[in-house]
Amino acid sequence: MAEKTEKKYVITNHRSGKVLASCGGSAVQMTANGGETQVWCAVPAEGTSVQLVHKVSGLALTVPGEAENGTALVLAEAQGNASQLWKLTTTVKGCRRITHVASGKVIDIKDISDADGAPAQLWEFVKGDNQNWVLTEVEKEKKAPAKCAAKTAKPAAKEKAKAEVKAEAKSEVKAEVKAEAKPAAKTTKAAAKTTKTAKKTK
Fold this sequence. Notes:
Layout: E1 7-13, E2 19-23, E3 26-30, E4 40-44, E5 50-54, E6 59-62, E7 74-77, E8 86-90, E9 96-100, E10 106-109, E11 120-123, E12 133-137, H1 143-201
Antiparallel strand pairs: 1-4, 1-12, 2-3, 4-5, 6-7, 8-9, 10-11
């Protein structure tokens, strides 16, 4: 199946349940941690093929040298040459088989291992579960934080409005107090003058 637009995936080995990752320039399987270091971009290339580009490093999944059984896969500068072209084929289990276009061999995990750090390698297609991969698209998950941010923004706006109302209320109270204080001050002065006048009369 052709990938018409670039998509981002977490690529999980169906048998081990671990994901394709980068470690020291090599392609290995690791326990999923939800990080971007385990995300791969399927970049459209010639015909129905794609390059599998590591999102963080920008390096492409590559077959170094001869495409023999057991060749460990590495990451190298993306050039779109034959060593970096792959075909994603849907299997009967709903998984994908990742086939190296030039050699016809597929990606699996060395020695059918479950261990973290076990290398991803090239091997002839033998219909093994070790050669089945689940590609989970991650692009849609990025929209969720934006919704959360929007929800957070509304309470913030409400708090701001409340603060403004309180500030206005305080200003009105101060104005009323000052207004009441001025007549009281005038009355006090008038009373003082009356007292002085009364003393002079005596």
